[in-house]
Amino acid sequence: MAGQIGVGMVGYAFMGAAHSQAWRTVHHAFDVPLTPRMAVLCGRDAAAASAAAEKLGWASVETDWKRLVESDEVGLVDICTPGDTHAEIALAALAAGKHVLCEKPLANTVAEAAAMAAAAEEAAARGVRSMVAFNYRRVPALAFARSLVADGRLGELRHVRAQYLQDWIVDPEFPLVWRLQKERAGSGALGDIGAHIVDLAQFLTGSRISGVSAVTETFVRERPLVASSSGPAASSGSARGEVTVDDAALFTARFSSGALGSFEATRFAAGRKNSMRIELNGSAGSLAFDFEAMNELHFHDHTLDPSVAGFRRILVTEPEHPYVGAWWPPGHGLGYEHTFTHEVRDFLVALGSGTDPAPSFADGLQVQRVLDAVERSAAADSVWTVV
Amino acid sequence: MAGQIGVGMVGYAFMGAAHSQAWRTVHHAFDVPLTPRMAVLCGRDAAAASAAAEKLGWASVETDWKRLVESDEVGLVDICTPGDTHAEIALAALAAGKHVLCEKPLANTVAEAAAMAAAAEEAAARGVRSMVAFNYRRVPALAFARSLVADGRLGELRHVRAQYLQDWIVDPEFPLVWRLQKERAGSGALGDIGAHIVDLAQFLTGSRISGVSAVTETFVRERPLVASSSGPAASSGSARGEVTVDDAALFTARFSSGALGSFEATRFAAGRKNSMRIELNGSAGSLAFDFEAMNELHFHDHTLDPSVAGFRRILVTEPEHPYVGAWWPPGHGLGYEHTFTHEVRDFLVALGSGTDPAPSFADGLQVQRVLDAVERSAAADSVWTVV
Amino acid sequence: MAGQIGVGMVGYAFMGAAHSQAWRTVHHAFDVPLTPRMAVLCGRDAAAASAAAEKLGWASVETDWKRLVESDEVGLVDICTPGDTHAEIALAALAAGKHVLCEKPLANTVAEAAAMAAAAEEAAARGVRSMVAFNYRRVPALAFARSLVADGRLGELRHVRAQYLQDWIVDPEFPLVWRLQKERAGSGALGDIGAHIVDLAQFLTGSRISGVSAVTETFVRERPLVASSSGPAASSGSARGEVTVDDAALFTARFSSGALGSFEATRFAAGRKNSMRIELNGSAGSLAFDFEAMNELHFHDHTLDPSVAGFRRILVTEPEHPYVGAWWPPGHGLGYEHTFTHEVRDFLVALGSGTDPAPSFADGLQVQRVLDAVERSAAADSVWTVV
Amino acid sequence: MAGQIGVGMVGYAFMGAAHSQAWRTVHHAFDVPLTPRMAVLCGRDAAAASAAAEKLGWASVETDWKRLVESDEVGLVDICTPGDTHAEIALAALAAGKHVLCEKPLANTVAEAAAMAAAAEEAAARGVRSMVAFNYRRVPALAFARSLVADGRLGELRHVRAQYLQDWIVDPEFPLVWRLQKERAGSGALGDIGAHIVDLAQFLTGSRISGVSAVTETFVRERPLVASSSGPAASSGSARGEVTVDDAALFTARFSSGALGSFEATRFAAGRKNSMRIELNGSAGSLAFDFEAMNELHFHDHTLDPSVAGFRRILVTEPEHPYVGAWWPPGHGLGYEHTFTHEVRDFLVALGSGTDPAPSFADGLQVQRVLDAVERSAAADSVWTVV
C-alpha cells in the first residue's frame, strides 16, 4: 500500500491548472510509491485562490507562500509562478526540507539559478529532492527518441535543428502581459519557449551546448497596458507600455559532441500555434518531431537499403513506448496534459526509490547558462560566446 | 453551487478505465450543474473489482449489477460491459429511475436495441435520461466539423468516405478473445468499430443511411483459445476455437440526402492502429479527418479562388472550438480520453437542464438497423438492402 | 546504333500532347533499341492538326486515320482518340502490321475490347505488338510498389482500397463535354478514371478481381451544351443536354487471391484534383500511394518491432528505383508526363527484344470486363456480379 | 512565325543534361518568340562530348569553349561547368555579343562575380542579355509564392526560415569529387545549395540580406581520391585527399525589410534527399514549401477567423498558376526538369521583348556577396558581418 505525500502548489494559472490535472490523475494511471494529497494551494488573492482550489481540487488555501512552505501538510512544493519568484520560494522550501518541483525556466538569472542548484545539491545530501519542470522530456515520442539516440540508432550526430514557433502576439494590439515584461519573465520567447528546446536538444543528444552565436529582436516595441499585469489579457484603453523582452531569438550552436545546432524561438510565426519542432541528423539515421502532432515520431534509418528507406511515422502509442502502457491501446493518442502526469509520476518514483530525479536544478542552471550566453552574444554583435 | 449525482459503473476493463478518467476529471475542467460522485463499481470477481475500484477511484464495489442498479447511492448507471449484457442492465436501470449512459453498440440485436429505445423514450417522459456512448462525436475536430456542415460550408453533400482501420488481429496467433465471439460481441469489426463510423457519418451529415450493399469476411477462421474468454489476451496452448464474427466489413451506402457513402471497418489493416478516417465532399467544400491525428481537421473551401484553395490543416485547439476552452492554449492538443470527459460533461449538462442528451438510444437503434442491414446484405449476395 | 521506327498518332488533345512529349524525349533519357520518328499526326480538321503537328513536333499531317495506318512512314500507331473509335483504328492498324499503343479504356464495350484482344493475339503471332496505355503502372513509385508486393514484403494481401478522386465537374454549369456523353466516352468516371484503379489494383496485387457489387450515380443530370462536343469546354448559352454517364462509381470487390477491395471513382470530390489513391494491407506490411504526391510511396513493414514500425515515406527518386536512373539525383522528383515517357520506353524495349509488352490488350479486355460487371451490378440492385 | 536562336552549351554533366531537356522541350510547351536550335556542345574529351551530343540532341561538338563562343551558329551561350570557369567563359561570350545563361553560383569569388556583373551591364546596353540560372525561382509553387508576398498576402514579414538539406556525402567513404574541392567548386554546401536559398529568400521577400552571423563545418576532412576529379564518383583505392570545402553552413541573417532569417545548407542530413525548405511568417500570413513535394505550397491566411484558419496545401497545378497553363490538368504535377524549361522560356521571352531577364548577373553578384559575408563571419568567430 502506497503512502501519501502532501503537495503544496504556488500559483494557479495555466501551469497550475496543468499541474493540478497531473496531481489528480497520476496514481489512477500509474503505480506510484506515494499517492499525492493535494493539500494546499497558494495565491495572493484569497477569494480567487479559494475558487481555484475548489475548481482544481486542492483541500486548502494560503495567501502567503511562506506559510505553505512551512505547513506540516506539505511535503512537496510545486512552484508554478513567474520566474522572478522561483528562487526565493525554492530556496525556502529546500531549507524547510520540502521536495521541490519548479517550473521552467529555473530562474530569471544565472545567479539565481546557481544558488538554487547549489541549494538543491546540498538538500539532496539530506534526501530532499528537486526537479525542474521541463515537461516536454515526458512526451512519449521524445522520451522514446532519447532511447533511440542512446541506443546508437542515429550514429554520430551531425545536426540539431530546433524551433519553437508560436503566434499569440502577432497582433500588435495584444496587450502587455507579464510574459512581455523583463522584470517578471526574465526574457521573452527565449526563456519561455527557447528554454524548452535548449533542454530538449541537450536531453535528446546527451550532449551539452558549448557555445552560441545569437540574434534577438523585438518586433513590436510598445503594446497596450493591462489593468493588472497578472490579470487576464485584456487591454485597458489607449495607454501603452514598453515591451522589454525579445519577441524572437535565433542562434547557432555547437555541441560538445561536435554536432551543429540551429535554434529559433519566436511568438511571431503566424499559423504555428505550439510548433516545437526538432530534427536530429546522424551518420546512421535521423529523427523529426513536431509537438503539434505530439503522438508521432519520424525516424529515418539510414542503414537500410536506400530503395526502402525514408522517414517513417511512428505512432508512439504502443505499450512498448515510454509511459504509454499506463494509458490506452495503440493509436489512441495522448494530449498535452499527460506530459505533466508523466513528470510527477517520475518525481514520485524517484522519491520512492530515494534517487534524484531528472532534470535536476543543475540541469536547469545549465540551460540558464545557455540562455545567458545567447543574450550576451546577441548584445555583442552575435560574436561566438562560450557557455 | 453544484449538486452531486452518484454514479455506478458496470464493467472496468478498457472502457471502464476511460470512463473513470472522465468521471474523475469532468468537474475540474468544466462547469457542470452536477458533480459526479464515483459511488459504486460492479464486477463479477470481488477481489479484482475491489482492486480496480481503488485504482480507478470508485468508493465501493458490487458483484451483482442488480444491486448497483438498485443502490440509493446511484443516480446514474454507466454500462461498460460487452454488448450481450447492455439491454438487460439498461432496462433495469431505466425502470429503477436511473439515468443511463450505455456503451456502443447499443445492443447485439435490433430487437434488443428497439426495446431499449422504447424504454428510454418512456423513461424520458419521467425525466430519466439516457445516452449511447458514441464518444467520437466529442472529438473537438468532429464536433466542429458538424458545425461547419450544419452551417452550409460544404454545400450539398455528394460523398461520405469512412474507414475505421485497425490491425490488432493481423497475427493469426492472436487469441480468441470475447470480441471475436458472436455470442458476446454480436459482431466483429462491424459492431465494434463500424458502428462508430456509421454514427459519425450520420451525425456529421445530419442525414440517415437509407440503404446498403455489403460484403464481410473472416480472414482467420480459427484462433488459439484463451483460458477465460473474459481474461487477458494470452493464448492457452494449442487448442483452437472458431472465430464467429467478421474480421472486416465493407459496404456502399446511400444517404437520405442523396449522398453516396463508402464504408470499411477492419482489424486487418497492418500499420493502421486506430485510423478512423472520414472524408466528406460537397458542392461548396470538403472535410477530412483521421483519428490518428485527432487534433487536426482538414477543410477545403471550394468557394475560394482555385489558385489559393486547398485542404487546410486546422488545428482544432482554439478557444472558439467545441470543448477546447476548458483546456489548454492553442496548439496544446488533447487525447483520446478527453472524448469521454466531453461525453459525460454533455450528459451532466443535459441532466442539469432537464433535456435529452444526444446521441439517444433511438440514435443507437438506428445505427443498429444499419448494421443489421449490412449483415443481411452480406448474407444475400450484397443485394441492396433498405435500412 | 539504334534503328528508327516511324510513329503515327491519332488525336492530339490532352493525351496527344502527353504522348508527344514522350515520343520527343524517350531516346534522350533512355537507351532504347529503336528511336522514334514522329512521322504523322492525324486530326479531322486539317488546319488545327497542322498547327498541333508543328507545336508538338510531328513531321506531317493526315485528316483520315486510314491513310495514317497505311502510311509507309508509320510502323507504330498511337491511338489517343475517345474510346468509341479505338476498336476500328486498332483493328485496322494491326491488320496492316503496325504495332499499336492504345489509350485506355481499351474500348467502350466488352465486345469491342474482345475483338481487339483477339486481333492483338493474332497479330502477336506475326510479331506485331500491342499495348494498352495504363500509364500509371509507369509511375516509379507504383512500379516499385509492384516489386515489393511480388517480393512478398506485404505477405498475404487482405485489403485493397483504391480511390480516384477529381473535382472538375463539381460546378453544375460545367458544360456537356464529350467525356460526359455515353456514345463517345462509353461511361463517365467509371471508364475514365475507374479503369485506372482497376488496372492498377490488379497490377499491384498480381491478382484479378473476381466479382463486384456496385452503385453508380449521376448527381447533375443536365448541363449546358457546347457548340462542338469535341471543342473547348465553353458552354453555349442556356441550352442544356442530358448527362448520359456516371458522375461517380463505387464498388466492393473480391480478388482471386482472397483479398477484399473497395473502389471509388468520382469527379465530385471537391478539392481532390487528381487524387488516385491506393492502399494495400497484407499480413506482413502495407503500402499507400496518392498520385497528388507521385514521388512518394508509403510503406509499413509489419515485421519490425512495433516500437519502431510505421508508414515510412519513401522518396522514389533513388537510382535503384524503376526508371529513375535515367533522370535526376535523389530528391529531384518527376512529373505526370514521365509516366508516358516510361510507357513508350517499355514499348520500344519490347519491340527491340521481340516480346509482348504489358499491359496487353487482353489485360485491357479484363479491365473492361470488370467495368462491365460494375455497370451490370449497379443496374441490378448492387447484387454480387461475377466478372 | 518564330525565328530561331542557336544555342551553345559548355559542359554536359548533371546540369548539362537538365538544360538540354529544357532546350529540347521549351517551344513544344510554350509559345516563345525564338525557337532554340541546339547547335554546339562543348566538352574537353571529344569522344565523350560526341556521345553526349548525340544522346542529348546537340548538332555538333567543340572541345574548346572559345570556338563555341565564336561560332556563327551560336547566339546564346549556356554555361554548365563548375564555378571556377564561369567568369572566363561568360566574359568572352558577352564580349562576343552572345547572350549568356550561366549556372549558379555565378562565380567562385566576389571579384569574379563583380567583373561578370559589370560586363553584363555593359553588354545589356548593346542588347546582349544575361541571366544566372537560379532555377528554383521557376518552380510554379515558388513563383506563385512570390506573387502572394508581392500582393501583400503575408503582411509585414517577420521571419524567413530556409534550409537546404541533402545527404549524399554522409558516408565518409564517398569520394573526393570536384564539388568537395575548393579550387573547383569555390565552396561546399554553401555555394552549391546555400546559394539557392539565399537567392530564393531574397526573391520571395523582395528584400535583401543586409548582414549575417555564420558557422561552417567540415565533418569528414579526408576522403578517398577519385582517378579523375571530373570523372564518376568512384574511389580509387586507399589514397585519400583533403576535403577543402564546408560540409555544412548555418547562419542567421537580417533583411533590409527588418525580417530575421535562419539559413542552413548541409549535405549531412540523413534521409533528406533534396529538401529545400523555406517558410515565411508575416503579420497577415505564412508560407511553407519543401522541394521534395515541389507541387505543393502551404499557405496560412492569418486574417481568417482562427477557428477555420490553418496551413492549406495548395496544389500548384491550376491553370491560373505560373507556367502551369502550358502543361497538364490540375493535380498532374510537374518535376524537377520543368524548372529549367521555365527558365529558358523566360530567357527567350526576354530576348523577344528586348528586356533584361531576371535574375541578372547583378543579382548573382549580390548572392555572392552574401556567401562571402557568411565565410567571413564564420572565419571571425561568427561576428555580425555586413553584406
Pick out its properties:
homotetramer; 387 residues; Rossmann fold; Dihydrodipicolinate Reductase, domain 2; 6-stranded parallel beta sheet; globular
Please, could you describe this protein's structure?
4 copies of one chain form a homotetramer. By secondary structure, chain A is an alpha/beta fold. The first copy, chain A, folds into 2 domains: 3-135, 3-Layer(aba) Sandwich (Rossmann fold), CATH 3.40.50.720; 139-357 and 366-379, Dihydrodipicolinate Reductase, domain 2 (2-Layer Sandwich), CATH 3.30.360. Chain A is 33% helix and 27% strand. The first copy, chain A, contains 10 helices and 17 strands. In chain A, the strands form 3 sheets. Chain A has a 9-stranded mixed beta sheet. A 6-stranded parallel beta sheet of chain A has the order 3-2-1-4-5-6, sandwiched between helices. Chain A has a two-stranded antiparallel sheet with strand order 9-10. In chain A, helix 5 (110-125) links the parallel strand 5 (99-102) and strand 6 (130-132). The first copy, chain A, starts with a strand and ends with a strand. The mean pLDDT of chain A is 96. The A-D interface holds A 158-159, 161, 163, 165, 167, 170, 213-215, 217, 219, 248, 250-252, 254, 258, 260, 262, 264, 266, 268-272, 279, 281-286, 300, 302, 309-311, 381-384 and D 158-159, 161, 163, 165, 167, 170, 213-215, 217, 219, 248, 250-252, 254, 258, 260, 262, 264, 266, 268-272, 279, 281-286, 300, 302, 309-311, 381-384. Strand 16 of chain B pairs antiparallel with strand 16 of chain D.
